[in-house]
Amino acid sequence: MKTRTIDPKQLPVKDLHQYILGAVSPRPIAFASTLDREGNPNLAPYSFFNAFSSNPPVLVFSSNRKVKDNQTKDTLHNIRETGEVVINAVNFAMMRQMALASIEYPAHIDEFIKAGFTPLASDLVKPFRVAESPAQMECKVKDIITLGDEGGAGHLIICDVLRIHIHEDVIDEQNRIDPHRIDLVGRMGRAYYVRASGPAIHTVFQPVTDMAIGFDQLPASIRQSPILTGNEIAEIAALTELPVTASLELLSLDLEVSKLLEQEEGYSALHQMARNAITAGSIDRAAGLLMLADSLYAQ
After folding, report:
1. pTM
2. pLDDT at position 196 over 80
């Protein structure tokens, strides 16, 4: 596969910025609410953001210097003055409003009003929460780490979470946040966003204490399957053991399988059947089919 290799030092910052945003994607959005020293509200989205600790609960986002003029943003000014911020989650229902708040309005302009959001008083900090946000986290700023002094340089804002407010309707019967109900959006490169709900959500159950056999213990005929994708082969590699010979003999007597064995392209047919079994969630059956194909057709 042809690859483009980039030296960050040889590329204009504006172009490097877009390559990074496109490759490190999607990113969650910190919709940061702050106040200046006079109590003027500010609301701005940041996608250089994530959670970094649960005990203590810590969130980190970066307010970068503007590439075009090397200026810092109102959010950073306010946090340096007050040491407080509310980080609001952004869901699909408020995505377009959030984008309005990203406009570089003058410092005295209230983005709550401009973008049509409802301010809610916080419990422990002075900045307002966004009522429309499905999850709002009141934070004290623990530290600000400056990463550079030129356009595009970030300031890591390390936030201790003091209180979390979550809309009840996004919590399921197990007291967990349902990804389909909270319906979050993530930022990608340029004007692209992604909606993290519906068919975009995939579950991967991978116990981390059970020792899976891994790719290296699979027969070459499975690793080099002309039918299966890397993800599908990984479903077999995630098993703790492969089927034994006795189970393969029993599988070969299955009416559907025995018909495939009579075909000239029995190897490919078994791999296709295994793929269908993986899609249906029958991983053990898929492993049996693949091992049967290996025992009968592999050279």
Report:
1. 0.90
2. yes
